[in-house]
UniProtKB/TrEMBL annotation:
Protein name: Ferritin
Organism per entry: Rhinopithecus bieti (Black snub-nosed monkey)
Function: Stores iron in a soluble, non-toxic, readily available form. Important for iron homeostasis. Iron is taken up in the ferrous form and deposited as ferric hydroxides after oxidation.
Localization terms from the record: Cytoplasmic vesicle, Autophagosome
Domain of life, per lineage: Eukaryota
Amino acid sequence: FTASSDSPNQDSEGAINRQINLELYASYVYLSISYYFDRGDVFLHQSHEEREHDEKLMKLQNQRGGRIFLRDIKKPDYDGLNGMERSLLELHKLATDKNEPHLCHPFTHYLNEQVKAVKELGDHVTNLRKMGAPESGLAEYLFEKHTLGDSDNES
């Protein structure tokens, strides 16, 4: 809230809405990866986690008196997770600049989780490329067998 009114800061409201939409997008990306590799035990969990993040952000937006604006979820691209990390950093900076410290803590937590997820996915992509993917179907098989393991799929 701004110091002079009971309405939420419009910059913060817009930034939170952008992050809500990015969390939904990340969930969609993980869902796509989950079914591409038929690995609900690994990536489906990440999809659910991202949806939990966006639900918490929507609750926060409502508690602040802000409005939620959802956009269409676009087809996944490879830069989406980096965009989410940038958005979280911008949102944290905006909350700090607009003197809304109550917004900083949740975004610091999401940033830490996002850094871990981006690193894990980056490591997986690097390993797949080293094994010759996407040209080699054998690379995907070996990646699934040796990197993701033989745990039971949820699907």
